[in-house]
Amino acid sequence: MKDALHIGGKALSSRLFIGTGKYSRNTLIPEVVAASGSEVITVALRRVDPSSREENVLNHIPPHMTLLPNTSGARTAEEAVRIARLARAAGMGNWVKIEVINDQRYLLPDNLETIRATEILAAEGFVVLPYMSPDLSAALRLRDAGAAAVMPLGAPIGSNRGLRTKELIGILIEETGLPIIVDAGIGRPSEAAEAMEMGAAAVLLNTAIATARDPLGMAEAFRGAVAAGRQAYLAGLGAVRQEAEASSPLTGFLNV
Amino acid sequence: MSFYESLMTLERLPFKELWKGYRAEDVRRALAKEKLDEEDLLALLSPAAGPHLEEMAQKAQRITRSHFGHVVQLFTPMYVADYCVNHCTYCSFSSIYDFPRKKLTLEEVEKEAAAIASTGLRHILLLTGESRRDSPVGYVKDCVKVLRKYFSSISIEVNPLSAEEYQELADAGVDGLTLFQEVYHQEMYAKLHVKGPKRNFRARLDAPERGCQAGFRSVNIGALLGLHDWRQEAFMAAMHARYLQDRYPGCEISLSPPRFRPYLGSFNPESDVTDRALVQIILAYRLFLPRSGITLSTREPAEFRDHLVHLGVTKMSAGVSTEVGGHTGDGGTPQFEISDSRSVPEIRDMLYRNGLQPVFKDWDILAESSVR
């Protein structure tokens, strides 16, 4: 596969990961999957109810999708580890998005607990994708702990504020050697394209699609934006110049 | 430090003049801000905000959808005992009323639990009257043990307990605490709570904070609207919520806006909370506390609830009985009259019709003893 994203032994052709929360009905999910072309979908284990046929979100996810159960609701590494184990025991595979949040006001992740959970779960054979605040030393520790990728936030979850942490994400892309998946905050297709142009490996989105007036139209728009951003990155963007090239160069005399 | 100290300061505010002093521009300024302060909250609860409910509603809906999505979480209360040692002038369970009191045996709890769980609900709120003798912590714990077989999230609404007792219940698998101050105005509180341990205003006021310290995942507070000036009461409840949120950011603090309902006695509400007033309160709560849950009970009539689901509500009860044992047929005296008696499937269908997804399950009990 040309330009595949390799994570956890899988080669993914789509670099757009999507979510399952916040939709007005679960029956929208297969339609959003089709419109977005996504191959990875995150699901909060807390919402999974195997005893309910109709309301069980898993019954609405097409079988070709890679499930990325998340530990939403965990406040400590221990809780995240328990949730991950419950997800695997429930047959949701061995991928996990670690989400440890101790702050209900901004929903910002706790990097320290996230690193601890990553160490434990990676050692147990999980493909660990930790959601984190973009901080280089934390990202390097996550890498050393066995994370398969890191998922820094662009802005707080659900805020649709875009790539507010752009500078820091850029550093993670350059320094960690891991796939960087921008998770949370992206509200517009142009912002997804911007993340991809910078060299992000993928983006994960939920609110922007789920709360759009037309979720399917928005899913399609993001599909195009992610692909365009990726293509631009591969094509090699020209350097951005602050000033026009001077017509009378200051060092021209050296060539005389 | 406790919210009591803040309350002592806040209650010195000259509310009567304050309500008259706010102007439309104060409301507009509050609406334009992202993080609202105490002044903004007062403006949004003041008469000046009355003509701006639509603008408040638009913003409240936008915030709610972006933080919570198009979902409403469902739960139901389960009354297991109605013995009560308090005399509160506005409540049917008050100790002065002579009616056959009930307390479910654990087998009866199990029957009720099975009946509720068969409707698909996975979140339960366990309620008792306030009596340490008849429904002690040990009994609540035994009930929780039974409920864990049927539900993925258990909250309690019982008499205020000590930090150690809350801890014991959290360890047993309880993840949420609901406790209403009923009325934040201290004089009114003393007048309405005539007899029993509930007379201790401070002990009740500090209980939600003890719950946060014990590590409950969610703590839900509220003022029983109608017992005193609703603007002032809503203000205090919201300030209490923000106090808890600032100190315990890991805990989900949510608010309920219960409105006074007819009951067994003849208490007349002090402050008439009209539909417009209730809407104003819910919107002010949402704008002031953008990420807090707002819980709507079946005290409100069906048609009104259907409108409120668009205005910031994140949780609602369904298939409700406020009688002990009310889900298995032979219930007792209801605590208050419910206005929305719709079944779980009826509420589910109503939400879908309104473009909202009912969420039946939104947690898994992770308490030590539940993970093998």
TrEMBL record, chain A:
Question: Reaction catalysed by this chain?
Answer: [ThiS sulfur-carrier protein]-C-terminal-Gly-aminoethanethioate + 2-iminoacetate + 1-deoxy-D-xylulose 5-phosphate = [ThiS sulfur-carrier protein]-C-terminal Gly-Gly + 2-[(2R,5Z)-2-carboxy-4-methylthiazol-5(2H)-ylidene]ethyl phosphate + 2 H2O + H(+)
- Keywords, ordered alphabetically: Cytoplasm, Schiff base, Thiamine biosynthesis, Transferase
Location of the active site: K97 (schiff-base intermediate with dxp)
Q: Subcellular localization, per the record?
A: Cytoplasm
* Positions bound to 1-deoxy-D-xylulose 5-phosphate: G158, A184, G185, N206, T207
Task: Tell me where the transmembrane regions lie.
Answer: none
Domain of life per record: Bacteria
* Protein name as annotated: Thiazole synthase
Q: What is its EC number?
A: 2.8.1.10
Tell me what organism the protein belongs to: Paenibacillus rhizophilus
- Gene Ontology BP annotations: thiamine diphosphate biosynthetic process
Q: What PANTHER family does UniProt report for this protein, alphabetically?
A: THIAZOLE SYNTHASE (PTHR34266:SF2)
- Write down the Pfam families for this protein, in alphabetical order: ThiG (PF05690)
Q: In which pathway does it act?
A: Cofactor biosynthesis; thiamine diphosphate biosynthesis
Establish whether keyword Cytoplasm is in the entry.
Answer: yes
* Organism classification: Bacteria, Bacillati, Bacillota, Bacilli, Bacillales
Q: Which SUPFAM superfamilies match?
A: ThiG-like
State the oligomer form and interacting partners.
Homotetramer. Forms heterodimers with either ThiH or ThiS.
Q: What class of enzyme is it?
A: transferase
Query: What Gene Ontology terms describe what this protein does at the molecular function level?
Result: thiazole synthase activity
Known InterPro entries for this protein?
Answer: Aldolase_TIM, Thiazole_synthase_ThiG, ThiG
Entry GO terms, CC: cytoplasm
UniProtKB/TrEMBL annotation, chain B:
Q: Which cofactor does it need?
A: [4Fe-4S] cluster
Domain Radical SAM core, which positions?
Answer: 67-291
Encoding gene (name): thiH
Coiled coil regions in record: none
For this entry, the protein name equals 2-iminoacetate synthase ThiH
InterPro entries membership: Aldolase_TIM (IPR013785), BATS_dom (IPR010722), rSAM (IPR007197), rSAM_sf (IPR058240), ThiH (IPR012726), ThiH/NoCL/HydG-like (IPR034428)
Alphabetic keyword roster = 4Fe-4S, Iron, Iron-sulfur, Metal-binding, S-adenosyl-L-methionine
PANTHER family per the UniProt record, alphabetical: 2-IMINOACETATE SYNTHASE
Kindly indicate whether the keyword Metal-binding belongs to this entry: yes
GO-annotated biological processes:
thiamine biosynthetic process
Q: Which GO terms describe its molecular function?
A: 4 iron, 4 sulfur cluster binding; catalytic activity; iron ion binding
At the top level, the lineage of the source is Bacteria
Q: Which Gene3D superfamilies match?
A: Aldolase class I (3.20.20.70)
Q: Which organism is it from?
A: Paenibacillus rhizophilus
